[in-house]
């Protein structure tokens, strides 16, 4: 998925059109390319929430997190990398299974069927 357009600019965030809500499977993820950056976008339908993170897993630099399984650890939404199952919080990106790793997370907004991701700058 590469369709990208700048929607609007806030003080600190630029909102980028990522895709239509139907482009991301319920309780699954998709990779979107925004300004050359691969971002994993998750439609966590069971929770009624959307999340965006880096697509790259920092463990072995695999572009894989969009294909990871999502779930919850207590109240914490998480994604498990499909390679070696390291799990990351979808809210703040910290690795829940190994303190040595961290990913970036990005704000998501859904407006009239379209999904936007906010990037700094
Ligand atoms: S590459 Fe993701 S857990 Fe190893």
TrEMBL record:
Q: What domain of life does the native source organism fall in?
A: Bacteria
Keyword Plastid on entry: no
Pfam families per the UniProt record, alphabetical: Rieske_2
Keywords for this entry? Answer: 2Fe-2S, Heme, Iron, Iron-sulfur, Metal-binding, Nitrate assimilation, Oxidoreductase
Q: Which residues form a coiled coil?
A: none
- Domain named Rieske: residues: 15-117
Among its keywords, does the record have RNA-binding? no
Indicate what this protein is called per its UniProt record.
Answer: Nitrite reductase small subunit NirD
The organism's lineage is: Bacteria, Pseudomonadati, Bacteroidota, Cytophagia, Cytophagales
Q: Which gene encodes it?
A: nirD
């Amino acid at each position: 998925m590469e369709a990208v357009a700048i929607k609007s600019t806030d003080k600190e965030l630029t909102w980028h059109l990522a895709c239509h809500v139907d482009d991301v499977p319920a309780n699954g993820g998709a990779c979107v390319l925004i300004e050359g950056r691969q971002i994993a976008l998750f439609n966590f339908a069971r929770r009624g929430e959307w999340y965006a993170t880096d697509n790259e897993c920092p463990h072995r630099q695999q572009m894989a997190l969009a294909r990871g399984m999502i779930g919850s650890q207590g109240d914490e939404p998480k994604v498990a990398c499909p390679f070696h199952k390291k799990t990351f919080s979808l809210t703040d990106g910290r690795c829940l299974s190994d303190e040595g790793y961290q990913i970036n997370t990005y704000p998501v907004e859904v407006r009239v069927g379209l999904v936007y991701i906010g990037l700094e700058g």
